[in-house]
Amino acid sequence: MAKKKEWPTLKEGTFPRKAVPLKLERGDSEETAAGKFAKLTTSSELAAYRVINASETKSGIGEQIDVPTLIDQLREQAVAVNRGELAHAEAMLMNQATALQSLFARLAERGMGCDGIQAFEANMRMALRAQSQCRATLETLAAIKNPPIVYAQQANVTTGPQQINNGGMEIGLTGFLCQVH
User: Fold this and answer.
1) Both 106 and 76 in a single domain?
2) pTM (2 decimals)?
3) Residue 63 to residues 48, 51, 94, 99, 176: CA-CA distances in angstroms?
4) What is the DSSP letter of 12?
5) For residue 126, pLDDT beyond 70
6) Is residue 16 part of a domain?
7) CA distance linking residue 36 with residue 72, whole number of Å
8) What is the dihedral of CA 106, 107, 112, 116, to 10 degrees?
9) For the chain, how many helices (H) and strands (E)?
10) Number of compact structural domains in the chain
């Protein structure tokens, strides 16, 4: 039986903090506090934390997660993406592709070692899925690094009032749809 990995712990009582941080100001009303709680509850960073925490509970890493720091990190990553800084996303995709390649190799290796056709087929099917996901991940990374150029097929340019007749319907300047008789 494999021994559970022991993770180093810091000074007792300080880290890791487990409470989800809700930042309230002195004088916040109950309605304001409830609104801040609702905003935190529906935030993408709290949702990501919940998934990370659930997935790492059995690994032992979950016990070492400092919740306020992780939520701040997730929030900073989202802000960076909003500023157009995609270095973290690019690194994540590359690392996922590498992990998927490793999974592909391991499953293909396992499949090749199987004597039974069912075990061979199951392992190879999963190996090829991992390979396909690896390819899709690399395509996504390539699209981020080199966005496709979109060419417009039609451009309507006018300098005055414009009227469009389309199958008995007429769209005027105001954008209201009018039935033509």
Assistant:
1) no
2) 0.67
3) 16, 14, 27, 24, 59
4) T
5) yes
6) no
7) 16
8) 140
9) 6, 3
10) 2
